Amino acid sequence: MNLQNLYDKLHYEIAAPALIVLTSTWVQVMAVYGTTLENITWSFLGNCYSWTVVGIMLTWSILSLWIPGKEYKGPATSAGHVPVYRDNGFQYFLASLLSFAVLLYFYPQVAIDISENYPQILATCNIIALVLCAFLYYKGKHFPEIAEKLEKQSMIFEFYRGMEIHPRILNVDVKQLIISRFSMAIWYLIAMVFFVANCMIVEFSWPFLVSVILLTVYLGKFYWWETGYFNTIDIIYDRAGYYLIWGCLVWVPSLFTLAWYRVVAEPILVDNNKAWLILIFGLLFIFLEYRIDWEKQYVRQNGGRCHLWLKPATYIMATYKTDSGATKKSLLITSGFWGIARHLNYTLELLTGLSWTLPFMGFGIWVYSYIIFLSVLIIHRIFRDEKKCSAKYGVYWEEYCRKVPYRMIPGIF
Ligand SMILES: NC(=O)C1=CN([C@@H]2O[C@H](COP(=O)(O)OP(=O)(O)OC[C@H]3O[C@@H](n4cnc5c(N)ncnc54)[C@H](OP(=O)(O)O)[C@@H]3O)[C@@H](O)[C@H]2O)C=CC1
Ligand SMILES: CC(C)CCC[C@@H](C)[C@H]1CC[C@H]2C3=CC=C4C[C@@H](O)CC[C@]4(C)[C@H]3CC[C@]12C
User: Fold this and answer.
1) So where does this one cross the membrane (predicted)?
2) Which of 34, 114, 183, 280 could lock 193 by a disulfide, CB 3.0 to 4.6 Å apart?
3) Which residues pair with 173 in a beta bridge?
4) Which pTM does this prediction carry?
5) Ligand 2: distance of its center to the CA of 248 in Å?
């Protein structure tokens, strides 16, 4: 067996089933042992409370995509299909923020109830996610809406990877619903709820508030730029399978919220002065990340005829061929932040995640779970993205890598 065969065997036959088993087990272990809350119990089927909470969140997310409003057309797939999204992300964010705040103001006990039912909420998300992934697999296998080119693989791998790129159910784009509506909102709801529960069980804490403020600004930024997210590899290339759908329905509300869950019933150890410093740096990181994503959009929209950092923008005019054989042009920016490192936005993503974790220093390794996972995800993503860019742009990508030799930290990596 040569190296390529060995890699394929590992990738298709071992990694995917192993990840399914490991991640779904980890979620349950963490829900029971990841906190010092006293009344934690667990049930594989969830309970009435958890089904109500998840049901309301799902209905809220579906409604946001059903109400009439502005549309955004995403990039065409290789089969020429143009996905259509609802362009009301920021309104959805503001409405969610307001509703959570009103709910917590009039019914603060909900914070304790949700915190104590957190394992059941995850169990409920898990059931919904597995049923949805099975449905999407069946639908994509037997009734795909768009005939995309697809390599045949083992059933487990296809379930993990997914079948369709842009599946729709009841006229709703499944990826927009699950990734950018449900998972981002439940991430936020859980963080807010743990903050209020901490105030009620222990006492009000500025460092905890700083952490929630940073998440609020980060998610606000995400929704402000939501249509930009429809141009990323998750949306353009990845299929709606276990990785994305289970990941966003279960992994995001569990692992991404673990730091807050760990400290929900504990007095916070970091002092207020450190918390202010973390807030200043965290806001700076979020702003810089936004600015990097913005620079790419700005230079490309202006066809390169613009300034970055008070100087004319520089770029490589790359050409590439589409699946239908047509030749197209695209800019690879070599000035501004894109001239410093090829994935500086990922560096800032990590620093931002770290900034809302640091207020919980002193509580051991649990609170760093998200940042450890994100580091692995991002390194893996860099190699996936570069493979994609190298195949798309060929010599132009090589030229870009020569001009901008580092990926995340100039001089190091
Ligand atoms: N919290 C989390 O779990 C994660 C968050 N993120 C965040 O999501 C956001 C989007 O991420 P993502 O789409 O992965 O990454 P990028 O925004 O970095 O987009 C990568 C794409 O940009 C284009 N590109 C690459 N280099 C250049 C250049 N020099 N000039 C112009 N275009 C270039 C290429 O696409 P093309 O085909 O258009 O040329 C490439 O595939 C980021 O802010 C990131 O930090 C990402 C991963 C995980
Ligand atoms: C099943 C698991 C082993 C892995 C699941 C991974 C997914 C949950 C995540 C993969 C990519 C992630 C995201 C990418 C970009 C984003 C933009 C950012 O501004 C907000 C977060 C996110 C949407 C993020 C969400 C989780 C992933 C989809």
Assistant:
1) 14-36, 48-69, 89-107, 119-138, 178-197, 204-224, 244-263, 275-292, 356-379
2) 114
3) 168
4) 0.94
5) 7
